[in-house]
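Q: Joint fold for the lines below.
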Amino acid sequence: MLRSLALFALVLAVGVSVPPVPVTISELIAHPADHYDQRLQVSGVLKSTTFGPHLCELPSRATAPPADAPWDRPCIDIATSNWPFPFFDFSKRGALITIVGYFSFTCPDPKTPNEDGVQVMCVDRGWNGYINVESVAIGGYATCEDDECAPEDTSGAHEVASSDPGAQGIDGFARALVSAARSRSADRVVAITLPSLRTETRFTLEDRSSFARYYGEMANAPDWLTERGKGYRLFDIEKTDYTARHHELCFCIKGDCAGRWSQATADRYGANFSCHYVWRDGGAWYLLY
Amino acid sequence: MRALATFILALIISALPAFAAPVKVADIVRNPAAYLDQRLTVSGVIGSIAVDYDGAALCPTPEDRATLPAATAERPICIEMRLHEDQRKEIRIKLEKYRQAIVEITGLYWHRCLADLRAREPEVVREDCKDRGLNGYIGVESIAIRGYNADRNLTGLYPQTEGERDQLTELSPQSEEGLAIDKFVQAFLTAVRAKDADALALLAPKELRGFARIGFTVPETRLYWYVLSPEMAVRNESARRAGTGYRVYGGSRRATVCFCRRSNCAGAWPRSGNEFYTNLGSPTVCHFIERRQGTWWLAD
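A: Joint structure:
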């Protein structure tokens, strides 16, 4: 009797803690039906888009997409219902993550009509199904090898020299911004923001996690952050999507940035640089975003 | 001494704008400049929630809407709600708590695109106005729910006219499909009553069961809130009766099952597809189902 009870308890314990089955993204895409209703462990590179996060095959395993369909990368969607990160959090783009969860597929075969004879478009759930998240762990960041992670074109960014009259006053402004970040003061960031944007900036930064996302790295950076050339540089940007020129003030927040400043304005997700749009009006500098 | 006390009292009152009578959305729409950059308490109806893009809009009540010109894409009459991440998550999960809720929202109001203020500003700021079709923003600090709007067709961004509302087809409970769906309904209600996550997951087709496994076991998900939360779960036994406890609308592959949350829903069943999207004030709660390979399942 006691032995049966012990065996039952063991079976119950094993059943409750069934280990997740490791599976690659390529395997999920190739044979989705083999993995329905299975507790899985899937690793990949996080790709953040305005339509939500995706999990893409690790660079070492990914094959190049066809030339006539360059968007057809081996990725699955990540269901955001239990996703622990902010929906529009682009700061973790390129992260190597491992998800434990369950795989689902709304439209496993969109090419054939359904029972009503209707060919269903499943774009809202991606072309390759989605993983429902039980837990997620970050294990580093990928060295991106494809155009999704490639730096943006920085040919329109030109560093503004210290001697340039157009840079006058930027040193004091940079010190003020660093000081505001280090004092973790939303009020002080608002004070140097363009007046018409101050209310919105105040609302955004009064949330502590938002403040940390925008200024956390600057707050913890070394003292030389306020040294022009080593800690920060000013760039004049001429972008094709905006008709007017503007400036970006970029701070080096990770290690020594010597030799890497040419890529500062392309570091959109704050891996090495913290860049901010600034504008000079009537001799005074203002923070935009 | 008295003058000093009066002065101090006036100072205190001037520092507490949130305790003044709420401003109406219609007031702001008529004259946004008068409210610019102030902390306000605004009364209105949450008229639009775009789940995928985490957006929400605060609209005039039906009474106040009547005092404004009809809403158009060029001349909207709602204010956009800007949310912090925790609020965004709350609303995305508990849609029915906020959908068409009559609320008082406290927060900062701003407007990016008033012409006379923006004329000389940098292009990168003015560029933001291109897609900003609403009447400025309220940065939400707190939401107080005062009730729910009964006529859900009149308080969206662009309210529907009578002629635009889709007509519903009710499925007879005695039909072959009706009887098959009744089997599904009984199993669903039994599982909800028992809060049996495994049984509920098995009501999802295998290709969607993963979604159900997580949803029915993790209380912080949308699915759990909608099906199993105390606010939304259908637990009254009278809901099991076809016709009076539940009704089915739809076709041969996809259908909607609506359950009555009251003792009697006569005259209160959905009249259009809009009313499938319920809230805490609704008499019914609806679930989408679909038929795959001859069996009825919970739909995604």
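Q: Anything notable?
A: The interface with chain A takes residues 36-37, 52, 54, 82, 84-85, 88, 107-110, 112, 117-118, 121-125, 127, 137, 139, 201, 206-211, 213-215, 218, 220-223, 251-253, 291-292, 300 of chain B (CB under 8 Å). The longest strand of chain B covers residues 39-50.
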